[in-house]
């Protein structure tokens, strides 16, 4: 016993499609390659008032840096005027900047964090 799927039996019409052919009314969708999002650097900037211990604390808490790496970044901030705290997508970088700035202000420190786009290679 065979079953017929056709309009008279209430089923849908079944058409075989050979490779390279399209059924009438169909579209071929092409996949587009998604580009990687642009990355942003979060920089901590040196000032004359924020204690080094607080900068290390910020790096550990908000950027999840181990103690030794946080110390190295803090020394770069102190000696070079700025240090890279991390590399993130834009939204995350802006959030980190806002969190660090808010915490520093609550503690009474003028520590500045900024986000800038990573240089194109």
Please give a structural write-up:
This protein is α+β, with helices and mostly antiparallel strands. It is built from three helices and three strands. A three-stranded antiparallel beta sheet has the order 2-1-3. Helix 1 packs across helix 2 (67-80). The radius of gyration is 29 Å and the shape is elongated. The mean pLDDT is 87.
List keywords for this structure.
elongated, 3-stranded antiparallel β-sheet, 121 residues, Ribosomal Protein L30, Chain: A, alpha+beta
Percent of residues in beta strands: 15-25%
CATH topology of the domain at 39-117: Ribosomal Protein L30, Chain: A
Largest sheet, if any?
3 strands, antiparallel
Give the class from helix and strand content and strand pairing.
alpha+beta
Give the overall form. elongated
Helix share, percent: 25-40%
- The CATH H-level superfamily of the domain at 39-117 is Ribosomal protein L7/L12, C-terminal domain/Adaptor protein ClpS
Mean pLDDT figure: 87
Regions with little confidence, pLDDT below 50 for 5+ residues = none
Question: What's the total count of β strands?
Answer: 3
Secondary-structure element series: EHHEHE
- Give the strand line-up of the largest sheet: 2-1-3
Number of helices: 3
Q: Radius of gyration in whole Å, from Cα?
A: 29 Å
Question: Which CATH architecture of the domain at 39-117?
Answer: 2-Layer Sandwich
N- and C-termini, Cα separation: 67 Å
Under the CATH scheme, which class of the domain at 39-117?
Alpha Beta
Pfam families: ClpS (PF02617)
Function: Involved in the modulation of the specificity of the ClpAP-mediated ATP-dependent protein degradation.
GO biological process, one term: protein catabolic process
Subunit structure: Binds to the N-terminal domain of the chaperone ClpA.
